[in-house]
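Technical annex B. To support the medicinal chemistry partners, we prepared a structural model of the target in complex with NAP, based solely on the information shown next.
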Amino acid sequence: MTSYSSERPLRVAVIGSGPSGIFTAEALLKQQDIPVQVDVFDRLPTPYGLVRYGVAPDHLTIKSVTKGFEKTLADPRVRFFGNVEFGKDLTYDEARERYDAIMYTVGASSDRRLGIPGEDLKGSMSATEFVAWYNGHPDAAAREMALHATGVVVVGVGNVAIDVSRILVKTVHELRESDIAEHALAALERSAVKDVWILGRRGPAQAKFTTKELREFGELSAADPIVKPAEVQLTEADEAAITDNVVKKNVEVLRDFAVRTPEGKDRRVHLRFLVSPVEILDDGEGNVGGLKVERNRLDEQGNAVGTGEYEVLPVQLVLRSVGYKGVALPGVPFDAGRGVIPNEEGRVTGRPGEYTAGWIKRGPSGVVGTNRKDATDTVALLLADAKAGALPRAAKAAASEVDTLLVGKNVEVFTFSDWQTLDAHELAQGQEKGRPRHKVVHKADMLKHRKQG
Ligand code: NAP
């Protein structure tokens, strides 16, 4: 049995400061059995991962979860190391030497592809990139978006598809109430978008979005929801087979949209079902010139099967929103097929003292809060292993070891206090403009808020 004390606490590195990373730190702090010291690393200067860069900018209430995150990061047993990239600034071996346990909570930063011709044309991209762009992610802020498009397709019927479609059809007046990045607000103000098609390859009863998000399409000031009645018809047997309340409500809302007379608003959101994209068409100059889709039917197992009937949608921008995908970390095992770190309930397979939580553990599903239980479950295993003496003991366990390492590598660490300064700056700048926040989007500008030394 290995013992930990306030002089020699259990040293845990958390890689990734999104919700699962912060919930990990929170769960470690909550328990009383083992004194802990938690270092949370992020490759970006800013903490909170998808809460800052993924959650829709107009869903500000979801972001209020950061109030609790702040408390966690402000705890004296926790240190935040922003702008530190795992695998480069802190390698796997360097982390192993300095920590008794490592928790990987890096989420799923890439996306799934459609695997159809034309996917690399200009104007075809992942919803992930589009979301990162409008949320002011430093990697995406400088991108140009094809908002000269009058028609846009969003492939997939999950909540991400709903988010990007709503942002595309909201007015600037509506968007100003959100914390959308300033560059995106300016670009969307000039946007020519009139029609957005959201495509489900299966039926309305198989859609993944939630009802609250779907309903928002009925409440937009400048866009009408359009649904083809035939595409939301269900057989009596299919109807009877619905047991899930969310699905039932989704179908009700879609039927309501289908019988509404459009109010003639400037923009339209078309929710289409039983159609699959088969080819993104070239306009002759390497840009998206349309999307060829095939009508589907559902087979006995509920899978989409093509019928050989096609149509072309007049679009110039195609956003695939068919799921996020995890990316491998240098030195850490990875299941490339599933896009996750192989693990048994959060214990990394074959790696004592290494753990994982969140999307990189189980795949990209669930809402922010889902990751609290997920992280707490893994932390329970970590603590059980610690109590059982099953963790390798860090050779360089002094807290200062990591500081020395990073100083030696000239890494410009962004601390929690630096983040608080940047956060206050963004809020103040937002207030001046009558907006909830004005996001700083370039890394070099964020680092200007760093206290030197
Ligand atoms: P998702 O919910 O898994 O939805 C992915 C969609 O892509 C599904 O409709 C899927 O259809 C479709 N799809 C997959 N491959 C396809 C293909 N080749 N062709 C056509 N369609 C295809 O994923 P997500 O929207 O990225 O969301 C990720 C998670 O974040 C979800 O748990 C979501 O609820 C959550 N989230 C929540 C909120 C919120 O609470 N407001 C906002 C955003 C995201 P099939 O079912 O047919 O595979």
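Notes passed to the chemistry partners:
The chain has two domains: 10-109+325-447, 113-322.
Residues 370-387 form the longest helix (18 residues).
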